[in-house]
Amino acid sequence: MQITVTIEPPDQPAVATLLRQSDAIAARLYPGAFRQPLTPATLSRPGIALFVAREDHGQALGCAALLDLGDGTGELKRMIVDPDHAGQGVGRHLVTAILQSARARGFRSVLLEVGIRNVEARRLYESAGFRNRGPFGRYEPTPIATFMEADLTRRAI
Q1: How many Å apart are CA 67 and CA 69, to the nearest integer?
Q2: Suppose 10 and one of 33, 43, 53, 83 were both cysteines; which one would form an S-S bond, judging by CB atoms 3.0 to 4.6 Å apart?
Q3: Which residues are CB-neighbours of 138 under 8 A, at least 6 positions away?
Q4: What does the angle CA 10 – CA 115 – CA 27 come to, to the nearest 5 degrees?
Q5: What sign does the CA torsion over 147, 152, 153, 157 have?
Q6: How many CB atoms lie within 10 A of CB 104?
Q7: Is the pLDDT of residue 31 over 70?
Q8: What separation in angstroms does the CA of 128 have from each of 8, 94, 100, 133, 137?
Q9: What are the residues whose beta carbons fall under 8 Å from the beta carbon of 140, sequence distance 6 or more?
Q10: How far apart are alpha carbons 22 and 156 in whole angstroms?
Q11: pLDDT value of residue 98
């Protein structure tokens, strides 16, 4: 299966479906107070680029957003891979595309917050060069969150 990743508008049914899947997975893993759902409207704000992974026939397999934090860094937001396509390299394609885009835009690093129970995502992020760090921006430490950073000044993507 050929996987392509492109920046697309968030206001499409396939993206809404993926975001609902992400919310359902988060609801199973984490208490309600710690969840912050994303909608296509939220992803339409300025400074956010939505990356969508598709297979040969155009089916959306996953998505993730890159938020420009305005200080030379970006935040990887809400990566989701359709559970029917987990383990097929979709997440790797999304992370690679986001890091390449961030580097091309001159970002020095990409930050993210990931839940401690999302072991597969943590493994993927670590293999892509992300390392643990403290909270950033408006984030506060919580018992369910880990914060990570990929330093783009050191590692070629």
Answers
A1: 6
A2: 43
A3: none
A4: 70
A5: positive
A6: 10
A7: no
A8: 23, 11, 11, 15, 22
A9: none
A10: 29
A11: 98
Determine the distance from the C-alpha atom of residue 41 to the mean position of all C-alpha atoms in its chain, rounded to a whole number.
Answer: 17
Supply 47's token pair.
Answer: 């400074």
Which two tokens mark 132? Answer: 């643990």
- Per-residue CA distances from 85 to 67, 74, 103, 109 (Å): 25, 26, 27, 28
Residues 65, 78 contacting (CB under 8 angstroms)? yes
- Say if residues 58 and 16 touch (Cβ distance below 8 Å): no
Measure the CA–CA gap between 27 and 116, rounded to whole angstroms.
Answer: 14
Using the structure block, give the residue that is written with the tokens 């408006």.
138
- The tens digit of pLDDT for each residue in 95-134 reads 999 999 999 999 999 999 998 888 999 999 999 999 999 9
Distance, CA of 57 to chain centre: 23
The tokens of 153 are what? 């000044």
- Closest of 106, 107, 105, 113 to residue 130, by C-alpha: 113
pTM above 0.85, yes or no: yes
Which of 36, 84, 52, 45 shows the shortest CA–CA distance to 67? 45
